[in-house]
Design a protein that fits this description.
This protein has about 300 residues and is α/β, with parallel strands linked by helices. About 40% of the residues lie in helices and about 15% in strands. It has one domain: TIM Barrel. The protein has 11 helices and 10 strands. It is globular, with a radius of gyration of 18 Å.
Length: about 300
């Protein structure tokens, strides 16, 4: 992890006590006992109790090690991580059934080292979960498959209810913030292809604030995402995962009032739903509640 940079003092609105409680402990045990990792725990997400208590959870599949090294992400990195657990689709489906959540999000590391970049494994996870938990809504937060739409379609065919892919930051900051294999235009192309391939499936993206973006750049990102048909947007505060120099410093702690204002501006661009706030993460309970309602009406 390299030399450690100085810690950054959090503003009052970001100081929260991390969640505990019997329900959280029980659900943690359910996933750990099957060797599964939840993003909620990995990222020490302050919303964990609210989400888990409210029936939503986020799992990271294909292992806990990525072949990329984005400078905002706390996930471990390696050139050749161990192959995904072939039993993962079943373990995941059983854990979600046990957790009895109404809405689940699957996210994934990138596996640039695998011939299909993990597309068939992801599809197997989605199919097994949908088969075992038919009443539950499932969101797949995808990687970019380096723009390979054939691999993307392999996952889209599996039947997730919502497809998400994050641009993560405004275009100008992409090279500094994301791994060199990622790209802002590449991500927009992926989102455009999802909407073309599955016109009725809601799409979702997320932008972190506080990395040095200007308001003008943010609004341009709203326009770019709407131009490829993105329905749902989440805006949250970038928080530095560790003190290592690999992880970018927070350039600005954006005030909640500004988050509200950006949320209103985004809504004016035609998103069906926008969640904007310091603690909002790409998988965020309020958004999921909306999506559940939206899907209920759409079907
Ligand atoms: S692609 Fe980037 S953001 Fe995603 S898990 Fe890998 S390092 Fe993290």
């Amino acid at each position: 992890m390299g030399p450690v940079a100085e810690r950054q003092k959090l503003p009052p609105w970001l100081k929260v006590k991390l969640p505990t409680g019997p329900n959280v402990a029980r659900l943690k045990e359910a996933s750990r006992s099957r060797g599964l990792s939840t993003v909620c725990e990995e990222a020490r997400c302050p919303n964990l109790a609210e989400c888990w208590g409210g029936g939503t959870a986020t799992f990271m599949v294909m292992g806990d090690t990525c072949t990329r090294g984005c400078r905002f992400c706390s996930v471990a990195t390696a050139a050749r991580p161990s192959l995904p657990d072939q039993q993962e689709p079943t373990k995941l489906a059983l854990t979600l059934k046990e957790m009895a959540v109404e809405y689940a999000v699957l996210t994934t590391v990138c596996r640039d080292d695998m011939p299909d970049q993990g597309a068939s494994h992801l599809a197997a996870c989605i199919r097994e979960v949908k088969k075992t938990c038919p009443g539950m809504k499932l969101e797949m937060l995808l990687q970019d498959f380096r723009g390979d739409t054939k691999l993307l379609e392999t996952v889209l065919e599996a039947g997730a209810d919502v497809i998400a892919h994050n641009v993560e930051c405004v275009e100008r900051l992409t090279d500094k913030v994301r791994d060199a294999k990622a790209g802002y235009r590449q991500s927009l192309d992926i989102l455009a292809h999802v909407k073309k391939y599955l016109p009725k499936t809601p799409t979702k993206s997320s932008i972190m604030l506080g990395l040095g973006e200007t308001e003008g750049e943010l609004v341009q990102s709203f326009k770019d995402l709407r131009s490829v048909g993105v329905d749902i947007l989440t805006l949250g505060q970038y928080l530095r995962p560790t003190g290592s120099r690999h992880h970018l410093m927070v350039e600005q702690f954006v005030h909640p009032d500004d988050f509200n204002r950006y949320g209103e501006i985004a809504k004016q661009h035609g998103f069906k739903y926008v969640a904007s706030g310091p603690f909002v993460r790409s998988s965020y309970r309020a958004a999921e509640l909306f999506i559940k309602g939206y899907l209920a009406h759409a079907s």
